[in-house]
Write a structure and sequence with these properties.
Largest sheet: 8 strands, mixed
CATH architecture of one domain: 3-Layer(aba) Sandwich
Radius of gyration: 25 Å
Low-confidence stretches: 267-271, 608-613
Number of strands: 22
Mean pLDDT: 88
Structural class: alpha/beta
Helix content: 25-40%
Shape: globular
Length: 613
Amino acid sequence: MTAAEAPMLEVRDLSVAYGVGRDAVRPIDGLSFTLRQREIVGLIGEAGSGKSTAALALMGLARPPGHIVGGQVAFEGRDLLAMDDEALRRIRGRDIGIIVQNPRGALNPMLKVGRQIGNAYRAHNKANRGDGKRRAIDMLRMVGINDPERRVDAYAHELSGGMAQRALIAMALSSMPKLLIADEPTSGLDVTIQAQFLDQMWQTVQETGSAMFLVAQELGILANYCDRVLVLQNGHIAEDAPVRQFFAAPQQPYSREILRLEQDTAEGGIASGGTVKAGAEPLVRITGLVKNFPIKGSSKVVQAVHDVDLAIAPGETLGLVGESGSGKTTVGRCLVHLTEPTGGEIRFGDRNLSGLPATALRQMRAKLQIVFQDPYDSLNPRWTIRRILREPLDLHTELSRGEKDSRSRELLEMVGVDPGLIDRRPQGLGAGMLQRLNIARAIATNPSFIVLDEPTSVLSPRAVVGLVDLLRRLQRNLGLSYLFISHDLTTVRYLCHRVAVMYLGQIVEKGSVDQVFNDPKHPYSKALLAAHLFPDPGQRRVDRQDRRELEGEIPSPIDLPKGCYLASRCPSAKPECQARPQELTILPDGRSIRCWRVATGDLADQEGLQHAV
């Protein structure tokens, strides 16, 4: 075997233990695989399967009280586990870089992020402090942070979660390592920034002969960027397959389960949970919704939502999509009046919710429910599951104590949770189980409408599959309507009947799932779909000739443009777009669009951004 053919990284029987003796737990037990130059290998597994532990162990590290108890990690022929600390320090950061998942825990809160990036660069390169700062600015610009000259002097707490994650990425890449270990590096990023970062990394790997070990929860990332997929189960690799083979013919039951939704879709066997009667009167109607947030000490406001119109029929699921900050969650919170709208009208059935007395609004909330994004923060950790489920029954029903207990057990069975857990507290339960409890609480009072605010964002692939099945089954059996807010377009495609696309507080396109996903008309919809990573290795993003994206900075929601909000970033904009306010117009095919060029036929389908779904 020549040097070029030899693996860059060779892992043999790697084991990590927590505890000692008989009580020791081994999340990693006999891990073995290889990684070659110009190769990106993706690792996937259930939540808690040891993926992050494996990523750290490849650098000879383990979080206390864990420790590496056996195996070999050979990097370019040298066993990292046999090296002394000084030799390892020379390799870490220079030859092997790592991006961890929690930016808040990884960044030093006392140092500016530019200083931290500069220090990481100077530790392995001959450079002074000025060189370090210039390198930090260049790296922040590379990972998509606008105005890096100003951001380089920010502290971690002054950055959003997505920006903090990008700062970590910049630090890991500052010395351009030969091997990058990335533990869910894009988990806090919007789809457009995620795609730009992964594009950059794929290109770097191909051009420099480096390699990447990528821990991922999203199947779309594996399909679009990885050469091989590893499935981690019971501490070792249960499946190791080229990416196309993995998606076409998965061998392990776990692999087949997490790919089931995609395969059902390809075979035409997927269907939304409910049947929507043609011409049915909307159950929920939003007209001209506006929500502004005042700025302390200023006469200006943050214009979070502006002129939003939505209608949702009985038994229908409407998907609301867009990047972070587009106003999706604000619309959902306004709909159930957790946030008071600034203007507009919200009707539920024949009742206008605006201006309802507090008592009447509380009564209406029995029929209008919401499931929040983070299942860990949504349930009181001091309450038992019994008390959590009894709370809405205490507020909205006249059931006896025994009837409430019976109803609580029935709810657990409906969402697929063992009723024997009813006296447990939420602590120690997984995210998928907790989200099922949130749904059980939401349906306790027999609502007809539920806002689902990013309910799958922190779930593992298998938990997402199970939750989609549950939501469809509940919709069929209970006749529920959903507003499904999500950045995950793949799940939206599985679950929804219609889709509304938001940008900077406005709806820019509304239509059926087929219309929006297969033939988007608005330039922003095209950009969003082009950036989203669908789990289809037959249409890999890295194989596309044209991957054009929106450029420039998103306008401030405090000082919005007079004309089209997208005009400064849109490749199809004309001078008239800068001054002409855009109205939501119904097209002959039934969809609605906020673009005068599309509405008048002035923008041809082939002009502007390309899309691939």
